[in-house]
Backbone:
């Protein structure tokens, strides 16, 4: 670059707000930062083929094959809309937090964000928001497939309830992803998350209904968060579920709290370096 | 002007230990408003740790770090600084201009995106995806991010590492422009040339301490050692006793003599040993200069 030109081109605008920058920072500005951070995170992930393709494509493909093409009738397509949506929603939550934070930690981006005047809450909210937006996209895609090709018919209220629950249900898995993302390296994170995500999805009956599984696996499912999440989603659309909803909610709340506690300790270790 | 006496950031008796390693050893460092301060030193001298302490990325084992009188973690302090970290590698599928706009948005009164890109010399890359940038381009994007918030205080940890000569010169020019606006800039480097070209004040660091501090001219005069290499019959100990000789080392059949006044020493050597041969005089390596400064400090202590 030609230094002289640059200097003159820049000069007029470059006067600093320096000394008077003890500046007026209002609550409204903070809200703006939170919102922009969510959008930034979402756009970055949506354009990242390594993230967007598997998280959007796999659940859609699975549902298309096992929920629509190879299913027997609309009832099964409806049941599997709930289970495959649950499967889909968990993906971006686990990967967004787990891989995302592990990589940003390793590449020094987390350090950079800690230096910039970004409220730490905004950093984490952005990832939650991103996971929820992806959750919403997944529910919309699967619903579209189910309604147009699978003959799914749901009352609008029930569908809305299911969608809201699926989006909110990303939270416990964000917390689990956070624990992984703060604990393991960027290279190991994808493998570890797949090792958690795929077996948990299968064993919670998200791919194949639990009643087709051996008894001991059905009993084991009760210890998995994805099982409880899925049972709640099934309940909302009136697809006969197991156990009590209060127990499912309580399980997920405790699970989230425990994950957040572990994550908070890992976070403090990073900060107190 | 009394504004130049204002201390904008400070390390006060700070020690930072990692296990058995002391990265920063009882360091006092004041950064004064409007100055360009360069932390100069070899790898492992504690430059990056000092910066990270001031940025709040690492916590002192003892002592305290402050930014504008506040703890470095305070958002109100961080809204007045920008930083370029040595270890950060940007990986994102957003475009360069989007990235700068995002970081600028964290600040109350940022500069425009195009201005920041121009300072960094990457205005032509505005629409490029960050993942598609080369290492040097990413480095310049990091520079744009550091200054996009229009902060009065900039921390740049080895800002020119990995840049080619042309890009390095351009960045120097940009830094001078930014400093001319009254910004305070702290930069680390292990090139004396770079510190000399930019800084108002240089703090030479070694082993976690500041071993010398002063204007570039003062520092240069202290590290202006020359090396005389030659084959001579004279005894090393006798040469070491000559005035102005800093050190003498055997290097194979040759002797290597470090001195700030090579002319005087040579005159004496040639007088005493007419058979002296294979004579060579060269500038001392910066590492020698650092070692020399450290030795001086240890002698003084």
Residues:
């Amino acid at each position: 670059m030609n230094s002289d030109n640059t200097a003159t081109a820049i000069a007029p605008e470059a006067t600093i707000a320096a000394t008077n920058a003890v500046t007026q920072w209002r609550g409204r500005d903070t809200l703006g930062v939170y919102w922009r951070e969510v959008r930034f995170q979402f756009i970055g992930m949506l354009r990242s083929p390594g993230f967007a393709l598997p998280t959007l494509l796999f659940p859609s493909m699975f549902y298309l094959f096992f929920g629509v093409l190879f299913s027997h009738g609309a009832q099964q397509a409806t049941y599997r809309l709930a289970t495959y949506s649950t499967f889909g929603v968990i993906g971006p939550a686990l990967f967004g937090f787990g891989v995302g934070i592990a990589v940003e930690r390793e590449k020094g981006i987390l350090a950079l964000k800690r230096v910039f005047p970004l409220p730490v809450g905004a950093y984490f909210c952005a990832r939650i928001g991103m996971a929820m937006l992806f959750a919403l996209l997944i529910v919309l895609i699967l619903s579209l497939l189910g309604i147009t090709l699978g003959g799914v018919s749901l009352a609008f209220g029930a569908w809305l309830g299911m969608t809201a629950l699926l989006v909110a249900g990303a939270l416990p898995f964000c917390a689990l992803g956070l624990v992984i993302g703060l604990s393991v390296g960027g290279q190991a994170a994808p493998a570890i998350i797949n090792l958690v995500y795929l077996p948990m999805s299968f064993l919670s009956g998200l791919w194949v209904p639990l009643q087709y599984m051996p008894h001991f696996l059905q009993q084991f499912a009760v210890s998995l968060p994805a099982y409880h999440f899925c049972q709640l989603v099934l309940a909302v659309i009136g697809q006969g579920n197991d156990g009590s909803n209060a127990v499912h909610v309580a399980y997920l709340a405790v699970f989230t709290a425990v994950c957040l506690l572990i994550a908070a300790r890992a976070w403090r270790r990073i900060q107190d370096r | 002007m009394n504004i130049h006496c204002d201390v904008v950031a400070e390390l006060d008796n700070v020690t930072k230990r990692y296990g058995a390693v002391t990265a920063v050893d009882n360091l006092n460092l004041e950064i004064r408003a409007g100055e360009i301060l360069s932390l100069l030193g070899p790898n492992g001298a504690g430059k990056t740790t000092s910066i990270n302490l001031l940025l709040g990325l690492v916590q002192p084992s003892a002592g305290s770090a402050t930014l504008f009188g506040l703890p470095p973690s305070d958002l109100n302090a961080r809204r007045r600084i920008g930083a370029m970290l040595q270890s950060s590698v940007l990986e994102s599928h957003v475009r360069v201009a989007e990235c700068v706009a995002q970081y600028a948005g964290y600040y109350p009164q940022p500069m425009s995106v195009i201005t920041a890109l121009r300072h960094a010399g990457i205005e032509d890359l505005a629409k490029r995806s960050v993942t598609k940038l080369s290492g040097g381009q990413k480095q310049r994007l990091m520079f744009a991010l550091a200054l996009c918030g229009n902060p009065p205080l900039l921390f740049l940890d080895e800002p020119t590492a990995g840049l080619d000569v042309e890009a390095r010169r351009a960045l120097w020019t940009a830094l001078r422009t930014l400093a001319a606006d009254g910004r305070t800039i702290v930069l680390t480097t292990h090139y004396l040339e770079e510190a000399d070209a930019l800084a108002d004040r240089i703090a030479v660091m070694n082993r976690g301490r500041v071993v010398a501090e002063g204007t570039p001219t003062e520092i240069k005069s202290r590290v202006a050692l020359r090396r005389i290499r030659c084959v001579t019959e004279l005894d090393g100990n006798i040469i070491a006793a000559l005035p102005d000789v800093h050190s003498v080392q055997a290097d194979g059949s040759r002797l290597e003599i470090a001195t700030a006044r090579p002319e005087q020493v040579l005159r004496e050597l040639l007088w005493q040993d007419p058979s002296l041969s294979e004579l060579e005089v060269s500038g001392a390596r910066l590492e020698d200069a650092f070692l020399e400064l450290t030795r001086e400090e240890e002698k003084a202590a």
User: Anything to note?
Assistant: Residues 160 and 169 of chain B are 9 Å apart (CA to CA). Chain B has a mean pLDDT of 89. The two ends of chain B are 35 Å apart (CA to CA). The longest strand of chain B covers residues 7-18.
